[in-house]
Design a protein that fits this description.
This protein is mostly beta strands. It contains no helices and 15 strands. The protein is globular and about 50 Å long.
Length: 176
């Protein structure tokens, strides 16, 4: 990997670094552990990673889609909430991913993606038209922002305490 330009995005406790690199073949995501050669990923842009080496980013074939790379498995397109794009913003040690996606009408909603349930619309707070989930911890708590008006957001932390397969419901405890 002989980069023309590179930008780091995240680092984990195993000293694995993710980011984006511009090569002669174009822009692509990478992961590199100190003392080892870099690995070019099947994604346009690499972001956060966990201890297991799972990495979230933007898809290479469809750069407007959230993806998750898992070592030994490869890159999986996480889908959308029915709109034209999605963006992954955080991943925890269980491989749960949060971010936001466009609905069919173009409004943004925060999502939670789990391997078991797929992409789940986390909705918005009452009176707020859109939301963005920014990070998730190992307890399933996620931070998000709600759009109040153009370029003005309210931030909060939520705890996803129950998620059932049948109706895909979840309970939240609000901590603005």
């Amino acid at each position: 990997m002989s980069p023309f330009d590179s930008q780091g995005a995240d680092i984990n406790n195993a000293s694995a670094i993710t980011g984006t690199v511009t090569l002669s073949t174009g822009v692509t995501g990478f992961v590199r552990t100190l003392g080892q050669p870099g690995i070019i990923l099947d994604m346009y842009q690499a972001g956060a990673l966990n201890k297991a080496g799972q990495i979230i980013g933007r898809g290479k074939i469809s750069p407007d889609r959230a993806v998750r790379y898992t070592p030994g498995i490869g890159t999986v397109d996480l889908g959308t909430l029915g709109g034209g794009w999605s963006e992954a913003r955080g991943i925890n040690e269980s491989g749960q991913v949060v971010g936001y996606s466009a609905l069919p009408d173009g409004i943004n909603h925060a999502f939670l993606y789990t391997p078991r349930f797929g992409m789940i619309d986390l909705g918005t707070a009452s009176g707020y038209p859109s939301s963005i989930a920014n990070g998730i911890n190992d307890f399933g708590q996620f931070s998000d922002s709600w759009m109040m008006s153009s370029n003005m957001y309210q931030e909060a932390t939520h705890s996803s305490t129950r998620l059932t397969a049948a109706c895909r419901t979840w309970e939240l405890s609000w901590s603005p």
